[in-house]
Amino acid sequence: MRTTPVLPPWDQWTAGGARVPVGGHEIFVRRDGPANGIPVTLLHGFPTSSHDWAPIVPTLAAAGLCVTTLDFLGFGESDKPRRHTYSVLEQADLVQEVWRRTGTGRTALVAHDYGVSVGQELLARDPARVTRMVWLNGGLYPDLHRPVLTQRLLHGPLGPLIAPLTTRRRFGATLRGVLGRELCDEDLRELWAAASRAGGRRRAPRLLRYIDERRSHRERWTAALEGYPGPVLFIWGPADPISGAHVLARVRTTMPRASVVELTGPPAVGHYPQLEDPAAVAEALRSFLTS
Question: For a disulfide at 182, which of 1, 59, 71, 199, Cβ 3.0-4.6 Å?
Fold first, then answer.
């Protein structure tokens, strides 16, 4: 079991960015690296935040990349409105508005988990804006998505009743269930701090509607994924029970020209490659994004 944290404290991470007004809400945005560097935008997953990328960002910034990270609406340090109808389409709108506000034109895109769906929507809208595409474990193909029990319960009719009962211990147990390599207790506490802030635990059922959006936009998003003409890299943890080796098997068939870094270990990496093996992920990204 890992005993050394890979994440800096969450408040230290958020101190390096700011909450900015975007689309009628306040969205946490952070920029690292030289302002005139190669642009790259990192999109995080559910139920965490941009903090997931903290172990990776220093390597990218040192390599001369201008790194944009943000917390989606309902996540991390961004606003978490109570009765909001959260949507992947709106999250894509917010990313585009962040790009406009930061003067980001064409950019590489790196997406994980929930961010994968946002990335597919952005590709469907304007593939020419994306210079390079990197995918980490996520539900690229809805028919292959295997949500864990907690996700199924929160996404079901009892979700609003179950969500407020979520504790740090239950959160940690669920997260550990999708990992191939352990995270230390300190890292899990930091991830919980971001997920639970400002009533975040109560937002999970509304945020999980992205599962339905994946089904309703399946054809459009799959076409955007497979039809993207630029350089593509998959950095994948095969031990992920949600979207692991079974998803990568299809990717190798449908996108044979794409580059693949499969983190087989031992032990093999699971659902959070950037936290489970940050050194390997940072190096793969640095090499791909600067080549």
Answer: 1
Which helix (DSSP H) or strand (DSSP E) does residue 15 occupy? helix 10-15
| Residue spans of beta strands (DSSP E) within the chain | 17-22, 25-32, 38-43, 65-70, 107-111, 130-136, 232-236, 259-262
Terminal Cα-to-Cα distance of the chain (whole angstroms): 35
* pLDDT one-digit tens code per residue, 244-286: 999 999 999 999 999 999 999 999 999 999 999 999 999 999 9
DSSP string, 250-267: HHHHH-TTSEEEE---SS
CA-to-CA dists, residue 114 to 36, 223, 257, angstroms: 29, 18, 24
Check if the beta carbon of residue 55 is closer than 8 Å to that of residue 190: no
Q: Which of 217, 23, 14, 7 is nearest to 117 (CA)?
A: 217
| pLDDT-based confidence at residue 1 (cuts at 50, 70, 90) | low
Q: Are 48 and 76 in contact (CB under 8 A)?
A: yes
Distance in angstroms (rounded) separating the CA atoms of residues 198 and 185:
22
Query: What residue type is assigned to position 279 of the chain?
Result: A
**Alpha-carbon span 123 to 118, nearest angstrom:** 9
Backbone angles phi, psi at 183, to 5 degrees: -105, 150
The mean predicted confidence, pLDDT, of the chain is 96
Bridge partners (DSSP) of residue 261 are 235
Tell me how far CA of residue 45 lies from CA of 128, 258, 272, in angstroms. 24, 22, 9
All domains of the chain, ordered by start, with CATH? Answer: 10-290 (3.40.50.1820)
Cα 279 from Cα 249, distance rounded (Å): 24
